[in-house]
Write a structure and sequence with these properties.
single chain, alpha/beta, Pdz3 Domain, 4 domains, 19 strands, globular
Length: 570
């Protein structure tokens, strides 16, 4: 194991953690170390030993102080800091045995070991949560902006002006506070996060909020919308009610609520926050099918090519947008029973590997691989799966990364190593210091080459993100691999972990805190302010009428069919 890589990974890992939590944990460790030293010095002096037993309460009092500062009165947050409270609690044991030489020594060793274990596990695995729950809407929002301004790792790369964003959204926050409107508060915070155009910046809200008052409340009119490569927008996932009015699968929609579709998308839909502008345009078009009121007017082309206008009613239960996005993301009806890393033969010569996450189910093994910069376990697991396909006659391979929500980049790098004989740069774990990106741990791909003879097609799309985005990128550099899809991957590759909880837990902001670089010393994969993909697919699968009908009407996996035919033709 390369110690430079290991210790660099450790340094990077802890740089992503909440600094206040690290300080509190360090204070507890120092207190317990000081108590151990004092006991050794005072153990033969009864008076000083009595004083020591009183001093031994300091770690417990420190834990209680932390509890009242960071948790009270929101006791549900206690679990976030359970490591600190366990350390504080076990510090009582040596105090109770202070006068017993043998008992004290035994339990002091046990307590010391438990303290170290709890400290390492807690600080390594705990999320970087900042609680602003006791503040008002305005106070918590302004504090959240300052937190992001300090810790958001892509501020410089994306050219984010947090002062300008605060000035833009603060009036909306103040209005929500004045009106005591939590839904408006959530809307404003969500819009603020979407302006960052980062797939790893997300928001969530309390289930107790009545979001029916949200200005972005979606309706269900019984159809979805999909933009074709030609520029036309068609109806899909149409209900019986809509079909009775003349709109069926593939009907061209020209206007929505009296506006040309392109204008309605621009003026009436909310940005998705997608880093890649082309993906955002598609998602906003899909979401237009939920924009309106209790009714909406829709203009479409009938079988003769003439425009017709009908009024659609809100049908209540929402499903069309979700169904449309699911079919587009999975290329057909998703098979929820398929396991990650599952394999099969598509025909006599082409194998198939499904990867919907770069996770193995063993977090400790994943953490060790992350620190080493090499995932030997995953490489051997995938080797056995590919050998099994080879034994069945595999000469080519489709790797399916659609709807891949990420995990650990080292998992994807392990796969890449089996498909190449060459060495490649994977990612560099980094810190931002003195106005510069500084790599502290290089994670490289060492070519194994056992399956480098394979022709490989990789399916990726707008729902392939994070480490999935990384896997698509690392694979795209291999000469025997072609990445393809109807859309580009999400375009985000930094490490998640930041979490800001605002007023009364009404809304939270999730954001990346870990900086990852490519071989050029630039943030890995993430788009800049221009929102142009830095990890585009190599072959764009046309989303034409035939493709749309195969996916949405026939519920077939058109992209997989395309990839299989591509491998036969090339």
């Amino acid at each position: 194991m390369d110690l430079h890589t290991f210790w660099g990974s450790v340094r990077h890992w802890y740089s992503t953690k909440n600094q206040a939590t690290l300080i509190w944990t360090a204070v507890l460790l120092l207190e317990m170390l000081a108590l151990a030293i004092l006991h050794h010095v005072w153990r033969d002096d009864p008076k000083k030993l009595t004083l020591w037993r009183r001093l031994a309460l300091i770690p417990l009092l420190t834990g209680i102080l932390h509890l009242f500062i960071y948790v009270c009165p929101n006791w549900d947050h206690t679990g976030v800091f359970i490591g600190i409270y366990l350390i504080a609690f076990i510090s009582i044991v040596p105090m109770l045995l202070a006068k017993r030489k043998t008992g004290y020594r035994i339990f002091m060793v046990i307590t010391g070991l438990l303290t170290v274990i709890f400290s390492v596990l807690f600080t390594a695995l705990s999320p970087s949560v900042t609680f602003l729950t006791n503040k008002s809407y305005t106070e918590s929002f302004r504090a959240a902006v300052r937190e992001l301004d300090r810790y958001y790792v892509l501020k410089e790369w994306k050219g984010v002006d947090f002062d300008a964003l605060e000035a833009k959204y603060l009036p909306l926050i103040e209005a929500a506070e004045k009106d005591e409107d939590p839904a408006a508060f959530v809307d404003a915070v969500a819009d603020f996060t979407l302006e960052l155009h980062d797939g790893h910046v997300d928001w969530g809200h309390s289930s107790e909020i009545d979001m029916s008052r949200s200005q972005y409340r979606q309706h269900e009119y019984g159809l979805g919308l999909i933009p074709l490569s030609s520029g036309e927008v068609i109806a899909v996932c149409t209900s019986d009610e809509v079909q009775k009015k003349g709109i069926t699968e593939g009907t061209v929609i020209t206007k929505w609520n009296g506006k040309p579709v392109a204008q309605a998308v621009k003026e009436d839909t909310r940005e998705s926050g997608s880093p890649v502008k082309e993906n955002d345009d598609l998602l906003r078009t899909v979401n237009l099918s939920g924009v309106g009121g209790e009714t909406v007017t829709v203009t479409f082309l009938d079988s003769s090519g003439s425009e017709q206008t009908v009024t659609l009613d809100d049908l209540g239960e929402k499903h069309s947008i979700r169904e449309t996005l699911d079919l587009l993301a999975y290329g057909g009806d998703p098979d929820e029973d398929v396991d990650n890393f599952s394999t099969k033969m598509l025909d006599e010569k082409c194998g198939y590997l499904m990867m919907f996450a770069e996770r193995t189910g063993n977090p400790f093994q994943e953490l060790l691989s992350y620190l080493r910069g090499d995932d030997k376990w995953t490489r051997e697991m995938l080797r056995e799966k590919l050998r099994d396909l080879k034994a069945q006659g595999m000469e080519s391979l489709v790797i399916d990364l659609r709807e891949n929500d990420g995990g650990m980049h080292e998992v994807g790098m392990a796969l890449v190593s089996l498909l190449t004989e060459d060495d490649w740069y994977g990612q560099g774990l980094a810190v931002y210091k003195d106005g510069e990106y500084k790599c502290v741990s290089d994670h490289r791909i060492t070519g194994d080459g056992e399956f480098a003879y394979l022709k490989v097609a990789v399916l990726a799309n707008y729902s392939c993100e994070s480490a999935g985005d990384g896997t698509a990128y690392y694979l795209s550099r291999l000469p025997n691999v072609t990445v393809m899809g109807m859309t580009d991957p999400v375009g985000c590759g930094q490490e998640t972990g930041g979490n800001i909880m605002l007023t009364d837990d009404l809304v939270q902001i999730l954001y990346p805190r870990g900086l990852c670089l490519n071989e050029d010393g630039e943030p890995n994969i993430d788009t800049r302010a221009d929102r142009v993909s830095r990890n585009p697919v190599g072959v764009r699968i046309p989303l034409d009428m035939d493709a749309a009908m195969r996916i949405f009407r026939d519920r077939k996996d058109y992209e997989l069919e395309y990839a299989l035919q591509y491998l036969k033709d090339h």
